[in-house]
Request: fold
Amino acid sequence: MIEEPFTIDCAPPFLTVRFAAPQRTLGWSLLHPGFAVAHDVVWVEVRNRDLGPSVDPLEFLAARLGEAGLPQALAFMTSRDISRYHRAGREVEGVSATCVTTVGLANAERVGARKARAPHAGTINTLVHVSVPLTDGALVEALSIVTEARTAAIVDWGRAEPGAVTGTGTDCIVVASPQTGAPHAYAGLHTAVGEAIGGAVYEATFEGAVQWQQDFAAFIAAGGVALPR
Reply:
């Protein structure tokens, strides 16, 4: 049995994933985009009022991480209720992938056709850890598999809707893998790495979308006039 790759601490407004040892990462986020090394990955829950026109989001996020005592952390920002995070894992041929995601769909979009309106707050922030080290090329390939799996889950969830969405306008994805050991050179759909990533991401994202939809329905039923977190 492969050991848990990280611990999770949910203490609003912070959801913190902490690795036992620093991991190589690749992805996009406001802080530490591209290739980086991270010990902690943090979701910071925000409200629309926190990010007015005069607020620099980078400075805001850096200040919040300082408050949390995690100034070097890789970080996401989300208006989704971070207690609604979803975790899923998949093991294939001794390779495991673990996904943690928060799914908010108020800002839903369809690729190639931006909506002609100011988006509501809402995003899908996805972290995936792979148990084996990956080359630079394999990390790039892994990132594409995460994106494909996330999109497949959102499309399947939204099949009942006309013009199914494929994500949101502010989605962020990060892939992490160990720094030591002989790296795997491939992470495509034909590999154990790719299958493990795809399964974990699809499951967590689909569950997250279903949960968001339930929260939205409950909010409307209760007479809410704003979108759920």
Remarks:
- The longest strand covers residues 14-27.
